[in-house]
Write a structure and sequence with these properties.
The protein contains 13 helices and 13 strands. The chain has helices at residues 8-16, 22-32, 47-58, 98-103, 112-119, 162-170, 186-192, 263-278, 294-309, 319-330, 333-357, 379-393, 416-436; strands at 42-44, 79-83, 123-128, 148-149, 152-156, 175-180, 195-198, 218-223, 249-253, 282-286, 359-363, 397-401, 406-411. Helix 9 packs across helix 10 (319-330), helix 9 crosses helix 12 and helix 11 (333-357) packs across helix 12 (379-393). The longest helix is centred in the C-terminal third of the chain and has 25 residues, at 333-357. The two termini are 26 Å apart. The model has no long low-confidence stretch (mean pLDDT 97).
Length: 440
């Protein structure tokens, strides 16, 4: 049965204490690859290459010090998957489409993401499935098949970081690189019961990566354990924070904004609210009726930018994406200029909201699952209501995994480290409460 490979800390400690090796971990991860129902977690993998990467990591010298006592990076020796919109030298980059699989050719150089992973000694297990062009939130893909959850043949992973989630769930990676434009980390993390981290807009480097909409595209991680989120805080930046904020209050999104949220998801939301309050944070309800404007600002800017990137190739893509690209190409410069002003105003209002409440809490999706084979024509707009406000803000966000769906917790731009530290404290509180509720 599919199961995560282990926690970052447990595996990294085992490596540091010579209880396992990068090669042994890589062999275990490779044996678990593509175990989701469609056997399509990965769109590219090369076991021989991965084992050579493990041997290269093994050859990195140990030193004194560091978090694990061997002077190596947190990611050293750990199996990590990469979303297939980032170049790996010697491999194709499909962006989730056969069109780009056939036209991009073989990458001649590593993307910044891959360079950084390899420099830290991570062992890359392959390039993962994604919704075509990263332009969708369900994980459905007519070219490579829908991405289904390992062990759940009727449940979509969500997208667009679909294979990233599947790789962590099946245990072929202990952590997965994803991207988030309008919820592509937050939503699948919620649907798959994983922790997701969407970094602040502008963190990291997209060299060798393929954008969807540069105004909103962010990098991020998917992992199994929320408590380990701070271990990955520094990956996307070389700069050590001068100050890590300690948050004391948070805003609760209430009222009719949540009217379409499933009852079980709302119950999880109330549980997380209580847990944050038990950590000493003060809460207050926030009037966000103006968030109903978010999708009307976000979606056309996204479509216009995506259309510019894929101009001349619209016919190569599935009808739903082709229609959005065609729509984007018809948006006039004057309309875009006006939308940019609305975006700036919305972001300014979000900045003020974060100054007042520090943290904002909201379900990552109004549903706990997406059924494979169902009609999800209207799903995207429904989910974007919950994710677009933070996308417009360029805000960092984490998904808190729950029994039913997930809850997103967001902070102001570049307060990532404080957000991840709070996420870890919340994760510990949730684990303690779960343990205490189990029969002895």
């Amino acid at each position: 049965m599919a199961a995560p490979l282990g926690t970052l800390r447990s595996l990294r400690s085992a490596l540091a204490n010579n209880r396992t090796t990068p090669t042994k971990l890589a062999e275990t991860a490779l044996a678990r690859a593509n175990q989701n129902p469609g056997h399509n977690t990965y769109l590219w993998r090369d076991p021989a290459w991965t084992l050579a990467e493990a041997a290269r990591a093994q050859a990195m010298p140990a030193q004194d010090g560091g978090a694990f006592g061997d002077g190596r990076d947190t990611l050293w020796g750990l199996p990590v998957s990469v979303k297939d919109c980032f170049d790996i030298a010697g491999a194709p980059t499909t962006c989730g489409t056969k069109f780009y699989a056939n036209t991009n050719g073989i990458a001649s150089a590593d993307s910044w993401i891959v360079e950084r992973l390899r420099a830290k000694g991570a062992v890359i297990t392959g390039k993962t499935h994604l919704h075509p062009l990263a332009y969708g939130i369900t994980g459905e893909n007519p070219d490579f098949g829908p991405c289904l959850q390992p062990g759940k043949e009727h449940a979509l992973t969500g997208g667009s970081s679909s294979g990233a989630c599947a790789s962590v769930l099946e245990g072929s990676a202990v952590a997965a690189i994803g991207t988030d434009t309008g919820g592509s980390i937050r939503v699948p993390a919620a649907l798959c019961g994983l922790a997701g981290y969407r970094a602040s807009l502008g963190r990291g480097d997209w060299r060798g990566g393929f954008h969807l909409a540069p105004s909103f595209d962010t990098l991020g991680w998917l992992i199994a354990d929320l408590e380990e989120a701070p271990l990955l805080a520094g990956f996307f930046t070389e700069q050590e924070p001068l100050h890590i904020p300690v948050f004391g209050r948070f805003g609760i999104i209430a009222g009719d904004f949540l009217d379409d949220c499933e009852p079980q998801v709302l119950a999880c939301y109330r549980q997380v609210i209580a847990q944050l309050e038990s950590l000493g944070l003060r809460s207050a309800e926030v009037d966000v009726r103006w968030w109903n404007e978010a999708t009307d600002i976000f979606a056309p800017i996204q479509a216009w930018e995506a259309a510019g990137l894929h101009q001349g190739h619209f016919a190569a893509f599935e009808p739903a994406i082709r229609e959005r690209l065609e729509w984007g190409s018809t948006i006039t410069p004057d309309t875009i200029a006006n939308l940019r002003l609305q975006h700036a105003e919305f972001r300014a209002r979000m900045d003020m909201l974060f100054e007042e409440f520090e943290i904002l809490l909201l379900p990552a999706a109004p549903v706990a699952t997406l059924d494979a084979g169902a009609d999800h024509t209207h799903t995207r707009k429904r989910l974007l209501r919950y994710t677009a406000p933070f996308s417009l803000a360029g805000a960092p966000a984490v998904t808190i995994p729950c029994n039913f769906g997930g809850i997103q917790m967001a902070a102001a731009r570049n307060r990532d480290e404080g957000l991840l530290r709070l996420a870890a404290l919340l994760g510990a509180k949730r684990r303690q409460q779960s343990a205490s509720s189990q029969p002895s």
